[in-house]
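Quick log. Single chain, no ligands specified.
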Amino acid sequence: MLYRCVEERTFAGLAHEAVQLCIEAIQIASRVVSQKYGIVDGQLFAIKHLLILREQMASFDSDLAVFVKELDFSHMRGQMRRMLSGELSVFSITPDNALFILASKGAPRVVESTLDSKDELEQQLKAVCEAYIMSITKQIVEPMLSFITKVTAMRVSSAQNQMPIRETAFAAPDKLAEIVRRVSISVRKDLPQAAAKMCTYLNSSSTQEIIFKPIQSNIAEAHGQIAMLLETEYELEDVERIQLMDPCTLSKCMDSLVDSNS
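-> predicted structure:
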């Protein structure tokens, strides 16, 4: 209502404050949802309403940016440190007198900065999307990620006289087979549920795809690292027993989720 009634600069200032309040309200509501229904629901709630806010802001032909002037006293820290450490004295009659230096060089600097509501919203949206992507990735392939971390730590700690990985207790073929089995079940069961829940919050198929693609890439990368370990550290009979999904099968399995929920 104010958009065409006030100057653009005035509107930008009011809009910036309004957008900030909206973002804070969404964050508070997201935490409430997380406590009641789970972290993933809270993240999806935030993504949905930040996207709605972005759509509402797009209708205004304005940068929604405000210029802020602040006083900067950071340059005085060095002088104060010297005075407190005894390097400068308040009783000196030389130009190194502490009070003289503070009076002549202690004037605050005026620093100008720009606060852009659209940029701040994009940063918030990017952060919550990345958090959601990581949450789903860990939910699906956490056993593999933990296994890879242990292997990396073992290689770093025992660079010399290194025991073959397949002979260690945590990486025995049977142990790795169990990890792969759990992840395969999660890909076929938990990932479809995650995709379905995402669809209940986000109606746009393009938005779903943008968010789901990095999850697919992370899952594929985890499988790829396990495949490299199988190729370099395990025997052929171990590979056949572990039954890691090949890239083609994994890709078809994940792509079918997008198609069935679109």
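The CA atoms of residues 73 and 108 lie 5 Å apart.
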